[in-house]
Write a structure and sequence with these properties.
heterodimer, A: 226 residues, alpha+beta, four-stranded antiparallel beta sheet, 4 strands, 57% helix, B: 186 residues, mainly alpha, 10 helices, 0% strand, elongated
Chain lengths: 226, 186
């Protein structure tokens, strides 16, 4: 797909870049992409373009807003009408549902399904990050998180799943950075991090982003946010 | 506090639990709405579509087999409904609409300023893509769907998902180039 490098392996890696940026590749494919990025500057440049697209796609969608209450009213009016016309028969013995409910009732033990465990991990990490913010601000209300100012220099960052509260606290402290907004999405949450209260030169932001990116045990994804 | 998994809610909905339906709606309606509104480009139509999507969930919850995530299932239903809504509109209308979206790039009074703002221009060009390309870009970047999940939602082979994403990004680069932003790719 690339005019410079037409090798099939390179093309395949190139095609995976959007999913790598979104964090939806398998561990095996993610490792392949990481290795290729480490040794291919042109691919790394392309990855920067992909990350720009990802950030602006999130931004574009987040500005769309929610639907009006009309949609929900219409839905439940239709449900009421259906139920009045033909009430549904309750399924008293539904093995699938019962197993599902049973497994769920066992959580947080490890019998829970992997998807649920992943969701829980995200919630735990969100709590960790919230505790970091609260600790830094000394106030449980976290006013800075609620109303992120627009001045200054920012990055969008997704923490690595294995990052602990201490890792995140030390990382933010080392860069004198603060979490000001997030999680911005629910699948694998992004946070808006303030690097500086004043606007830094683009080159300096780029340098900090590269430094942060190298801390792969803590940072899973990072991109400058204008 | 732990929230009830989507699959459990679907099981309850299959048994006629209205509250479970409300919870599922509250959890997913905004994302489904955004996916649809980006396809049909009309908020009123998108609101009608999401009502239909969740009504289908109410009716068909008992048939959900749990082979995919609930969010993937919802987006697949939403896509089908959105395409049906689009088909009800005339092709010419759509072409004019797409052209208008691109023209907006230069017709905006703040164009000179915006041209300097690469991010704003990138967003405008994302909005100016065809429905097919907008759809795949949103599914990958915003809805965080894997190659396999996109294939399931759109109903195409996995290799076609990758190729379509490539061409969507290529088209985006062309739109940006026509607005004076050269990305050096492809």
């Amino acid at each position: 797909m690339n005019a410079i490098n037409e090798e099939p392996e390179h093309q395949e890696i190139e095609a995976l870049l959007p999913w790598h940026a979104a964090g939806t590749l398998s561990r095996r494919d993610a490792n392949r992409v990481e290795q290729a990025l480490a040794g291919d500057r042109e691919l790394a440049r392309q990855y920067d373009l992909v990350r720009e697209e990802l950030i602006e796609t999130i931004h574009l969608n987040e500005t769309l807003g929610p639907p009006s209450a009309r949609a929900m009213e219409k839905l439940f009016a239709a449900i009421d009408a259906e139920e009045a016309r033909a009430p549904r028969h309750r399924r008293w013995f539904d093995l699938g549902s019962r197993i599902s409910e049973f497994l769920w009732s066992l959580t947080p033990r490890t019998l829970a399904r992997s998807a649920m465990a992943a969701a829980l991990a995200i919630l735990v990490q969100a709590a960790v990050i919230a505790s970091v913010v609260v600790k830094e601000q000394g106030s449980p209300s976290g006013p800075e998180l609620a109303s992120a100012p627009n001045e200054g220099s920012y990055v969008l960052l997704r923490f690595a799943p294995q990052a602990t509260a201490n890792d995140i606290t030390n990382f933010l402290g080392a860069y004198k950075a603060k979490v000001v907004d997030g999680p911005l999405n629910m699948g694998s949450p992004l946070y808006r991090i303030r690097l500086s209260e004043t606007k830094l030169p683009k080159e300096e932001v780029g340098k900090i982003v590269r430094q942060m990116q190298s801390e792969s045990k803590i940072v899973d994804f990072i991109a400058a946010k204008e | 506090m732990q929230s009830t998994p989507d699959e459990v809610l679907i099981g309850r909905i299959a048994n006629g639990d209205r509250l479970a339906m409300q919870v599922l709606y509250a959890r997913h309606h905004v994302r489904v709405f955004r996916f649809v509104v980006r396809l049909v480009r009309d908020e009123a139509t998108a609101e009608d579509v999401i009502s239909e999507v969740f009504l289908d969930v109410w009716r068909q919850a008992g048939r959900f087999e749990g082979r995919s995530m609930v969010s993937t299932w919802l987006l697949a239903i939403a896509r089908f409904k959105a395409i049906s809504a689009l088909r009800r509109r005339r092709d010419e209308e759509l072409d004019e609409e797409a052209a208008a979206a691109i023209e907006d790039l230069s017709d905006n009074p703040a164009t000179a300023l915006e041209k300097k703002d690469k991010s704003a221009m990138l967003r405008k060009c994302l909005a100016g893509l065809s429905a097919e390309h907008r759809e795949i870009i949103d599914l990958v970047y915003y809805h965080e769907k894997s190659v396999e999940e996109v294939a399931e939602i759109v109903g195409i082979p996995e290799n076609t998902v990758k190729t379509r994403m490539f061409y969507a990004r290529k088209r985006l680069a062309e739109l940006l180039k026509s607005e004076g932003i050269e990305r050096g790719w492809p």
